[in-house]
Please model this.
Amino acid sequence: MSRKDISINLPETASATEKITVRAQDFENNAPIPDKYSAYYDGTSPALEWSGVPSEAKSVVLMLEDPDAPTSEPFVHWLIINFLPTETSLPENVPNGEKISQFATAQQGANDAGGQGYYGMRPPPGDPPHHYHFQIFALDMTIDLLADFSRTELLDAMNKHVLAKGETVGTYERKAE
Model:
């Protein structure tokens, strides 16, 4: 397995024994993502819902990755740790920054564009559609990481602590101009 694989397929998340159902409000699984969620337009984060978090979970993690990006690892668009296990949705247009006001314990990490929080889709013009994996993980622990934590730090912290996982995938392309 290469590091280009999305997080849901890596050994660090292989301990999951249950499946989480993940759904985006404004696009179906494996369907195009509306322009407003792209960095070419508004860069608004989409609303998400999930179900199937095991009762023994202590926290929930969100990871958004693009494995089609021309980078050695998937391009990280969004990382959030420490949702409470009873929280089952994320509203549209979450502000960037470490904390999310409507969630007491959730913390956003670094994206690969150099910010903290959501970074919208921005595939190179003319590329075939990129696949954006919105992944949810239920953990048997809470995670203690510094404010600008990375994908690698998060995967290391999650290793052997994933109880359940799931994803929904959206596609996005920018037509050549």
Remarks:
- Helices lie at 151-158.
- The CA atoms of residues 11 and 102 lie 32 Å apart.
- The chain has one domain: 7-172.
